[in-house]
Protein backbone atom coordinates (compact mmCIF):
# COMPACT_ATOMS: atom_id res chain seq x y z
CA UNK A 1 0.00 0.00 0.00
CA UNK A 2 1.41 3.39 -0.98
CA UNK A 3 2.30 5.69 1.92
CA UNK A 4 0.82 9.18 2.04
CA UNK A 5 3.38 11.95 1.56
CA UNK A 6 4.67 13.65 4.70
CA UNK A 7 3.03 16.93 5.52
CA UNK A 8 4.94 20.15 6.02
CA UNK A 9 3.21 22.61 8.35
CA UNK A 10 3.74 26.35 8.20
CA UNK A 11 4.37 28.14 11.47
CA UNK A 12 2.15 31.04 10.52
CA UNK A 13 -1.16 29.47 9.62
CA UNK A 14 -0.81 25.75 10.23
CA UNK A 15 -1.47 24.97 6.58
CA UNK A 16 0.24 22.22 4.59
CA UNK A 17 3.27 23.26 2.58
CA UNK A 18 4.35 21.87 -0.76
CA UNK A 19 7.97 20.71 -0.43
CA UNK A 20 10.28 23.01 -2.35
CA UNK A 21 12.23 21.56 -5.20
CA UNK A 22 15.44 19.97 -3.97
CA UNK A 23 14.62 20.11 -0.26
CA UNK A 24 14.42 16.70 1.34
CA UNK A 25 11.42 15.96 3.54
CA UNK A 26 11.92 15.90 7.30
CA UNK A 27 13.28 13.05 9.33
CA UNK A 28 10.91 10.88 11.30
CA UNK A 29 9.76 12.74 14.41
CA UNK A 30 10.71 16.14 13.03
CA UNK A 31 8.56 18.88 11.55
CA UNK A 32 9.48 21.08 8.61
CA UNK A 33 8.22 24.65 8.74
CA UNK A 34 8.70 27.90 6.88
CA UNK A 35 9.88 30.71 9.13
CA UNK A 36 10.49 34.43 8.45
CA UNK A 37 14.26 34.84 8.30
CA UNK A 38 14.14 37.85 10.61
CA UNK A 39 12.41 35.92 13.37
CA UNK A 40 14.96 33.12 13.72
CA UNK A 41 17.20 33.89 16.68
CA UNK A 42 20.93 33.16 16.56
CA UNK A 43 22.01 34.24 20.04
CA UNK A 44 21.95 30.91 21.91
CA UNK A 45 25.65 30.33 21.33
CA UNK A 46 28.63 32.73 21.18
CA UNK A 47 29.02 32.64 17.40
CA UNK A 48 30.58 36.10 17.64
CA UNK A 49 33.70 34.40 19.06
CA UNK A 50 34.21 32.71 15.70
CA UNK A 51 34.62 35.96 13.75
CA UNK A 52 31.73 35.03 11.45
CA UNK A 53 31.52 38.55 10.05
CA UNK A 54 34.42 37.59 7.79
CA UNK A 55 32.56 34.45 6.75
CA UNK A 56 29.44 36.48 5.95
CA UNK A 57 31.49 38.65 3.57
CA UNK A 58 33.53 35.83 2.05
CA UNK A 59 33.66 34.54 -1.52
CA UNK A 60 32.15 31.27 -0.29
CA UNK A 61 29.08 33.17 0.94
CA UNK A 62 28.71 34.82 -2.46
CA UNK A 63 28.89 31.40 -4.12
CA UNK A 64 26.17 30.09 -1.81
CA UNK A 65 23.98 33.11 -2.59
CA UNK A 66 24.46 32.56 -6.32
CA UNK A 67 23.35 28.95 -5.90
CA UNK A 68 20.29 30.03 -3.91
CA UNK A 69 19.33 32.60 -6.53
CA UNK A 70 19.33 29.91 -9.19
CA UNK A 71 18.03 26.88 -7.33
CA UNK A 72 16.54 28.09 -4.08
CA UNK A 73 17.23 26.65 -0.64
CA UNK A 74 18.40 23.09 -1.20
CA UNK A 75 18.65 21.93 2.41
CA UNK A 76 16.61 22.98 5.45
CA UNK A 77 18.23 24.70 8.37
CA UNK A 78 17.69 23.25 11.84
CA UNK A 79 16.00 25.11 14.69
CA UNK A 80 14.62 24.36 18.12
CA UNK A 81 11.78 26.01 19.99
CA UNK A 82 12.55 28.33 22.89
CA UNK A 83 10.50 31.01 24.67
CA UNK A 84 7.71 30.82 22.13
CA UNK A 85 10.05 31.32 19.17
CA UNK A 86 12.74 29.52 17.23
CA UNK A 87 16.48 29.44 17.85
CA UNK A 88 18.99 28.40 15.19
CA UNK A 89 20.68 25.08 15.81
CA UNK A 90 22.34 24.41 12.47
CA UNK A 91 22.53 26.21 9.13
CA UNK A 92 24.02 29.61 9.94
CA UNK A 93 25.41 29.99 6.40
CA UNK A 94 22.13 29.18 4.71
CA UNK A 95 20.21 31.52 6.99
CA UNK A 96 22.75 34.31 6.51
CA UNK A 97 22.65 33.87 2.73
CA UNK A 98 18.84 34.09 2.73
CA UNK A 99 18.91 37.21 4.88
CA UNK A 100 21.48 38.88 2.64
CA UNK A 101 19.56 37.96 -0.50
CA UNK A 102 16.29 39.28 0.89
CA UNK A 103 17.97 42.54 1.92
CA UNK A 104 19.68 42.91 -1.46
CA UNK A 105 16.74 41.95 -3.70
CA UNK A 106 13.57 42.40 -1.67
CA UNK A 107 12.43 39.14 -3.28
CA UNK A 108 9.86 37.29 -1.16
CA UNK A 109 11.50 34.00 -2.21
CA UNK A 110 14.22 34.78 0.31
CA UNK A 111 11.98 36.14 3.07
CA UNK A 112 11.36 32.73 4.64
CA UNK A 113 13.58 29.76 5.42
CA UNK A 114 12.58 26.12 5.33
CA UNK A 115 13.56 24.77 8.73
CA UNK A 116 13.58 21.37 10.38
CA UNK A 117 12.33 21.65 13.94
CA UNK A 118 14.28 19.55 16.40
CA UNK A 119 11.72 18.59 19.01
CA UNK A 120 14.20 16.61 21.10
CA UNK A 121 15.99 18.01 24.13
CA UNK A 122 19.51 18.81 22.95
CA UNK A 123 22.10 19.52 25.62
CA UNK A 124 24.15 22.70 25.45
CA UNK A 125 27.21 20.64 24.59
CA UNK A 126 25.33 19.07 21.66
CA UNK A 127 24.52 22.57 20.42
CA UNK A 128 28.17 23.56 20.68
CA UNK A 129 29.16 20.45 18.74
CA UNK A 130 26.70 21.34 15.97
CA UNK A 131 28.05 24.89 15.82
CA UNK A 132 31.63 23.64 15.71
CA UNK A 133 30.96 21.12 12.94
CA UNK A 134 29.37 23.80 10.78
CA UNK A 135 31.42 26.89 11.55
CA UNK A 136 34.83 25.78 12.80
CA UNK A 137 35.79 22.71 10.83
CA UNK A 138 34.83 24.33 7.51
CA UNK A 139 36.74 27.54 8.18
CA UNK A 140 40.41 28.29 8.73
CA UNK A 141 39.82 29.64 12.21
CA UNK A 142 42.59 30.24 14.70
CA UNK A 143 43.35 27.87 17.54
CA UNK A 144 42.60 30.72 19.94
CA UNK A 145 39.06 31.01 18.59
CA UNK A 146 38.49 27.29 18.93
CA UNK A 147 39.90 27.39 22.46
CA UNK A 148 37.58 30.25 23.37
CA UNK A 149 34.56 28.16 22.38
CA UNK A 150 35.70 25.35 24.69
CA UNK A 151 36.30 27.79 27.55
CA UNK A 152 32.84 29.34 27.24
CA UNK A 153 31.17 25.94 27.01
CA UNK A 154 33.08 24.78 30.08
CA UNK A 155 31.98 27.83 32.06
CA UNK A 156 28.34 27.10 31.22
CA UNK A 157 28.64 23.40 32.04
CA UNK A 158 30.84 23.74 35.11
CA UNK A 159 33.47 21.47 33.58
CA UNK A 160 37.13 21.75 32.67
CA UNK A 161 37.70 23.33 29.25
CA UNK A 162 40.56 21.00 28.35
CA UNK A 163 38.37 17.98 29.11
CA UNK A 164 35.58 19.35 26.89
CA UNK A 165 37.87 19.71 23.88
CA UNK A 166 37.64 15.97 23.18
CA UNK A 167 33.83 16.15 23.09
CA UNK A 168 33.35 19.38 21.19
CA UNK A 169 36.09 18.67 18.64
CA UNK A 170 35.69 14.89 18.46
CA UNK A 171 35.71 14.97 14.64
CA UNK A 172 39.13 16.65 14.51
CA UNK A 173 42.45 14.78 14.47
CA UNK A 174 43.82 14.12 17.95
CA UNK A 175 46.90 16.25 17.23
CA UNK A 176 44.72 19.23 16.40
CA UNK A 177 42.76 18.66 19.60
CA UNK A 178 46.08 18.71 21.44
CA UNK A 179 46.87 22.12 19.95
CA UNK A 180 43.45 23.42 20.99
CA UNK A 181 44.10 22.25 24.57
CA UNK A 182 47.40 24.13 24.53
CA UNK A 183 45.60 27.31 23.52
CA UNK A 184 42.99 26.73 26.22
CA UNK A 185 45.88 26.71 28.71
CA UNK A 186 47.36 29.82 27.07
CA UNK A 187 44.12 31.81 27.27
CA UNK A 188 43.29 30.69 30.79
CA UNK A 189 46.80 31.49 32.02
CA UNK A 190 47.26 34.87 30.34
CA UNK A 191 43.66 36.13 30.32
CA UNK A 192 43.07 39.70 29.16
CA UNK A 193 46.79 40.41 29.11
CA UNK A 194 46.85 38.57 25.78
CA UNK A 195 45.19 41.35 23.77
CA UNK A 196 45.46 39.74 20.33
CA UNK A 197 44.89 36.00 20.89
CA UNK A 198 43.88 35.25 17.30
CA UNK A 199 47.23 36.56 16.06
CA UNK A 200 49.23 33.92 17.96
CA UNK A 201 50.55 31.26 15.51
CA UNK A 202 50.09 27.62 16.43
CA UNK A 203 53.75 26.74 17.03
CA UNK A 204 54.45 29.87 19.04
CA UNK A 205 51.42 29.31 21.24
CA UNK A 206 52.43 25.71 21.89
CA UNK A 207 56.02 26.73 22.72
CA UNK A 208 54.83 29.38 25.18
CA UNK A 209 52.53 26.87 26.88
CA UNK A 210 55.36 24.36 27.22
CA UNK A 211 57.47 26.91 29.05
CA UNK A 212 54.55 28.01 31.22
CA UNK A 213 53.93 24.41 32.21
CA UNK A 214 57.62 23.89 32.98
CA UNK A 215 57.90 27.15 34.94
CA UNK A 216 54.41 28.27 36.08
CA UNK A 217 55.93 30.90 38.38
CA UNK A 218 56.87 32.93 35.27
CA UNK A 219 53.24 33.46 34.24
CA UNK A 220 52.76 36.62 36.31
CA UNK A 221 55.83 38.30 34.80
CA UNK A 222 54.71 37.36 31.30
CA UNK A 223 51.26 38.84 31.93
CA UNK A 224 52.88 42.04 33.12
CA UNK A 225 54.98 42.28 29.97
CA UNK A 226 52.03 41.58 27.69
CA UNK A 227 49.92 44.32 29.26
CA UNK A 228 52.45 46.81 27.87
CA UNK A 229 52.09 45.50 24.31
CA UNK A 230 50.21 47.97 22.12
CA UNK A 231 50.40 46.12 18.81
CA UNK A 232 50.29 42.59 17.47
CA UNK A 233 53.99 42.89 16.67
CA UNK A 234 54.81 43.84 20.27
CA UNK A 235 52.80 40.91 21.58
CA UNK A 236 54.45 38.40 19.26
CA UNK A 237 57.92 39.71 20.10
CA UNK A 238 57.24 39.27 23.82
CA UNK A 239 55.90 35.77 23.34
CA UNK A 240 58.85 34.74 21.15
CA UNK A 241 61.39 35.99 23.68
CA UNK A 242 59.55 34.16 26.44
CA UNK A 243 59.40 30.94 24.41
CA UNK A 244 63.14 31.28 23.68
CA UNK A 245 63.93 31.24 27.38
CA UNK A 246 64.18 34.85 28.54
CA UNK A 247 62.98 35.16 32.12
CA UNK A 248 61.84 38.74 31.78
CA UNK A 249 60.67 40.16 28.49
CA UNK A 250 60.76 43.88 27.87
CA UNK A 251 58.42 45.67 25.52
CA UNK A 252 60.15 46.94 22.41
CA UNK A 253 61.69 50.41 22.95
CA UNK A 254 59.46 51.87 20.28
CA UNK A 255 56.37 50.93 22.21
CA UNK A 256 57.84 52.25 25.48
CA UNK A 257 58.14 55.71 23.93
CA UNK A 258 54.59 55.65 22.65
CA UNK A 259 52.61 57.92 25.00
CA UNK A 260 48.98 58.89 24.63
CA UNK A 261 47.04 61.51 26.55
CA UNK A 262 43.67 63.25 26.22
CA UNK A 263 42.20 66.59 27.30
CA UNK A 264 39.24 68.86 26.51
CA UNK A 265 39.10 72.37 25.11
CA UNK A 266 35.56 73.64 25.38
CA UNK A 267 33.39 70.95 23.80
CA UNK A 268 36.27 69.47 21.81
CA UNK A 269 38.15 66.36 22.90
CA UNK A 270 41.83 66.24 21.92
CA UNK A 271 43.80 62.98 21.76
CA UNK A 272 47.57 63.28 21.31
CA UNK A 273 50.08 60.56 20.54
CA UNK A 274 53.26 60.24 18.45
CA UNK A 275 52.54 61.52 14.94
CA UNK A 276 48.87 62.17 15.61
CA UNK A 277 46.66 64.84 17.13
CA UNK A 278 42.96 64.04 16.85
CA UNK A 279 40.13 66.48 17.58
CA UNK A 280 36.61 65.24 18.21
CA UNK A 281 34.13 68.09 18.06
CA UNK A 282 30.51 68.92 17.36
CA UNK A 283 31.78 71.13 14.52
CA UNK A 284 31.21 69.79 11.00
CA UNK A 285 34.72 70.41 9.70
CA UNK A 286 33.68 69.43 6.17
CA UNK A 287 31.49 72.55 6.08
CA UNK A 288 34.30 74.90 7.12
CA UNK A 289 35.88 76.92 4.32
CA UNK A 290 39.09 75.19 3.26
CA UNK A 291 41.19 78.36 3.42
CA UNK A 292 39.91 79.10 6.93
CA UNK A 293 40.67 75.56 8.08
CA UNK A 294 44.14 75.74 6.53
CA UNK A 295 44.89 78.98 8.41
CA UNK A 296 43.80 77.33 11.66
CA UNK A 297 46.11 74.37 11.10
CA UNK A 298 49.00 76.67 10.17
CA UNK A 299 48.44 78.67 13.37
CA UNK A 300 48.37 75.41 15.32
CA UNK A 301 51.71 74.29 13.87
CA UNK A 302 53.24 77.72 14.44
CA UNK A 303 52.19 77.61 18.10
CA UNK A 304 53.86 74.21 18.50
CA UNK A 305 57.15 75.57 17.19
CA UNK A 306 57.28 78.46 19.65
Question: Biggest β-sheet: count, sense, barrel?
Answer: 5 strands, mixed
Quaternary structure type: single chain
N-to-C SSE string, H for helix and E for strand: EEEEHHEEHEHHHHHHHHEEEH
Please compute the radius of gyration using only Cα atoms. 26 Å
CATH class of the largest domain: Alpha Beta
Biggest sheet, spatial arrangement of strands:
3-7-5-6-4
Amount of helix: 40-55%
- Provide the CATH architecture of the largest domain: Alpha-Beta Complex
So how many helices? Answer: 12
CATH superfamily label of the largest domain:
Conserved hypothetical protein from pyrococcus furiosus pfu- 392566-001, ParB domain
Domain count: the total is 2
Task: Report mean pLDDT, rounded to a whole number.
Answer: 78
